[in-house]
Design a protein that fits this description.
mainly beta; 1 helix; Porin; eight-stranded antiparallel beta barrel; single chain; 190 residues
């Protein structure tokens, strides 16, 4: 069995072509979530609106495929009775996006993409699944790696009831605007 592993490793090593650099994106976004549908509350526009920050960490394996980490941080919540974000209500997810990429003669890259996210959400010491989707547009100046993006997001959080704490079944709709710095991926410009 060990000989087979060595043989496969040797074949893969000798048959590899030129490597292409993976591109990383680092940045920060402002996030507004003005629409929240919660089964335990009557809907009222602006009730529960969240303003927050979203760190951006994305790994672009190919020009049309990327993976990201999603962990928004609420700074202000209109219905908060205490701190807007104490860690008692958080989302931690991973995402994958499929993108359409175009580069013009001035080396300006535009991306239109769709993204799916999955992970978990926490609230009051409980955790449950989080599922989300986003549609986005990004523009990057390839000569510097600097860019900006915007996303329209929809997510669903479900957390089972525990004791006298009711079940959470919540849909959220939000928008993000941010800046990014794209590092690597030099061969994509060829």
């Amino acid at each position: 069995m060990k000989k087979i592993g060595v043989f496969i490793s040797l074949v893969l090593f000798l048959s590899t072509s030129d490597a292409q650099a993976i591109r990383f994106s680092l940045g920060l976004a402002g996030q507004v979530t003005p629409v929240i549908f919660d089964q335990n509350r009557d809907f009222e526009f602006g009730s529960g609106t969240r303003f927050g920050l979203l760190p951006v960490l994305e790994v672009e394996a190919l020009p049309w495929l990327a993976f990201d980490a999603y962990a928004p941080f609420a700074i202000y919540r209109t219905d908060a009775t205490g701190p807007a974000s104490s860690g008692g209500e958080s989302v931690f997810a991973l995402g994958v996006s499929i993108r359409d990429r175009e580069v013009d003669a001035k080396k300006i890259e535009t991306l239109m993409y769709g993204r799916l996210r999955g992970g978990f959400a926490t609230q009051a010491g409980r955790a449950g699944p989080y599922l989300g989707t986003a549609a986005g547009y990004a523009m990057t100046w390839l000569s510097t790696g600097r860019g900006w993006f915007s996303e329209l997001e929809v997510g669903r959080i479900t957390i089972a009831s525990k004791g006298n704490i009711p079940e959470v079944d919540r849909w959220t709709v939000g928008i993000s605007f941010g800046i990014v710095f794209r590092l690597g991926g030099e061969r994509w410009d060829l």
